[in-house]
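Lesson 9: reading folded outputs for more than one chain in a single document. The general rule is that every protein is listed as its sequence immediately followed by its C-alpha cells, and records are never interleaved. Here is the first one.
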Amino acid sequence: MPMSKPGYVLLAFVASCLLSSTALSQTVGLGTPIEQTQLQNFDLIAGPDGEGLPDGSGTALQGKLVFESRCQACHGANGEGTGSSTILVGGNMQTEASPLKTVGSFWPHATTLFDYIRRAMPANAPKSLSNTEVYQVVAYVLYLNGIINQYAVLNKDSLLTIQMPNKDGFLDRSHIQ
C-alpha cells in the first residue's frame, strides 16, 4: 500500500530528528582554542572618556606624511575626499539644507576619530597603522579642520582636551533602556 503525503512528512521528520541527535553527539573539531593573548588586539575600542587610548603621540606635521602615503588616495590631499563618504573637512551642522557631516562639523569627540582610524583605516588595510601613526593622522585631520594647530602634540592625555565643534550636538541616551 502506498504511503500518504502526511506519512512521508512524518517519516522525514523522524529521520531528521535521528540525524540531528547523531550530529549533536559528534564533535565538530574545527580550529583550535583561542588564547587570551591572541585576543589582545582584537577589540581596540577607545571610548569618549579616554578609556582604551594607548601610549603614543604625534603632531599634524608628522601626520601629514602618513596621510599622504596611506590616506590621500581616498580622502584627497586636503581631506576634500574623492566621494561623498570620504570627505573629512568642511561641513556645517547649523545649515537649513542637508548638512555635510565631516570630522570637523559632526563628530562629537576627538577620541571617536582616534578609535575609528585605529580600527578601520586605511580601508584597504584596517588596523595596519601603529598607535603613533594614528595619533599623527588624527592630529593632521584635526588640523585640516582648524581644530588644533600643526604643532600641537596629541597623546592619550591631550586628546581628551580637544573641544570638537559639535560636542554638544548629541543627546546621551545610553542610560535609557
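And here is the second record, again sequence then C-alpha cells.
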Amino acid sequence: MSLSVLIVDDSKLARALLKDALPKNWDVDIREATDGKEALIACRERKVDLMFLDLTMPEVDGYQVLKALQAEDSMPFVIVVTADIQPKARERVLALGAKAFLGKCITPEDISRVLEENGFL
C-alpha cells in the first residue's frame, strides 16, 4: 500500500524541486497544494501520511495549517521545509506538532536521512 504524501508550497518551482529530491522508486502517492487552505482541504478529503510544509504562504500559512491540524486531531507526519530557518521558527513548528524542520535548498540526502530516521524508508 502506497504512502500518501502532500507537498505544500506556494512556489511551483519549490514543489517540483522537492518532488524531484524524494527517493526514487518510493511507493508513494504524491499530491500537491499551492497554499495552506488547499492543504487543509486535501487533509480533510483524504488521509495524508506525510506532509512537506512551507511556512510562508499567502492567506493560510504553515503555522496556521499546523494549528488547524492539531485542533482537528488529524496531524500527519509533518516535515517543515522553509527558508525561515530562525531558531524561533523551528521551536514554534515543533511545538505545533511538526516532526522535522529543514531549510530550503535541501538535498535528496537530507530528505532521505529524515525519512530513514523516522521509519519512512
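What the second record shows: The first helix runs from residue 12 to 21.
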